Amino acid sequence: MKSNFNRRYDSSVWGLNLAKLCAIALVHSIWTADIMMAGSTTASNYELKPLSLPGATGVVRLDYFAYDRSTGRVWVPASNTGSVDVIDESSDAVSQVTGFKTGEVELRGRKVTLGPTAVSVGDGVVYIGNRGDSTLCIIDAHSLERGGCLQVAPPSAGPAAAPDGVVYIAATRELWITTGAPPLGISSADKSIQVFDASDPRHLTPKTKIPLNGSAEGYAVDNQRGFAATWNAGSTELQGLALDSARGFLFVACGDHVVNVDVARHGKIIDSLQTGPGLDNIDYSTDQKTLYAAASLAATLSIAEVGDDGKFHLKATVPTVKGARGVVAGKGETAYLIDPAEGRILKLTRK
To answer: Burial of 34 by CB count in 10 Å (0-12 exposed, 13-18 middle, 19+ buried)?
Structure first.
């Protein structure tokens, strides 16, 4: 369950279990066929360009990926290939950072090969979480040179102790990680967020742990607020999170729709956007005030502007491919989706 968030002292966090919010949102959401058709007619304004990942000959196990606005690069941990692929937004050229260890892990009764699966952009560096050997590794964001790696847990501890969600906290110069793989039925080994000191960006040191009530996965961090709050909701249909820090909006993927939660007003639900089933990680462009949500089962990407009142305004429902899930916003009206089955990234641009 990709519900969750941050809770903690100076770098704000909200630990979330947003189930009831998702259920209530359905009551607040009124969609007509005319509205959906109006959004769909503008899909022709966008195009998807496939970008093949080096060495991909079939399925590439893709999960978290990230856009670095300071360099204009998209960072893609390509798990079973043992590499991290880096896409230049201007040329679409793909570079590789190789040499990451992979390992066989048992998932749902079968052996699979896993390696780097998580990424977060730090201060001049990029942090990579590797399930293959339970490490956190550092890459120079400009030169792409590999730095050192820190052992999070012994590989023998298995996927329950391996890094999952990795997030850099700029306000406190820390790196936070969750462990386990809740969507695959693998509970976190310690049910906490592990905190590492990143005051020296190239040398991480363990700092503390934030205990959680369960096995969290993804989380959204607000670097502007210094309070903690919890909204309990109780559903398992929770996926990605995205945040508009300036306006205090939290976007939560709930299976087949996204809700906007007003974090400045005690978690009030403002609006809901129907997307179709199969949501995973969603993303939000603060510059464009636009939400992107890819539904893997519906094979569509919903693009919606968010008004100052927190209401969604659907711009387009763009056809994608089955299994395309997870999206990150790039520069302007560009976005990127993962397509694990074909071992590629889909680049969305405005015509």
So the answer is: exposed
Place of tokens 């387009």: 316
Distance (Å) of CA 81 to CA 17, 60, 110, 241: 34, 7, 18, 27
- What is the domain class of 13-350 according to CATH? mainly beta
Average pLDDT of the chain, as a whole number: 84
Residue 77 near residue 118 (C-beta atoms within 8 A):
yes
SS3 36: helix
Q: Are 300 and 264 in contact (CB under 8 A)?
A: no
Q: Are strands 13-17 and 228-232 parallel, antiparallel or unpaired?
A: parallel
Sheet-wide strand order for 257-262: 241-244, 249-253, 257-262, 268-274
pTM above 0.90, yes or no: no
Q: What is the rounded CA–CA span in Å between residue 282 and residue 285?
A: 11
Q: Which amino acid type is present at position 144? A: L
Q: According to the model, what pLDDT value does residue 240 have?
A: 86
Residues in the chain: 351
Q: What are the structure tokens assigned to 130, written together?
A: 């590797």
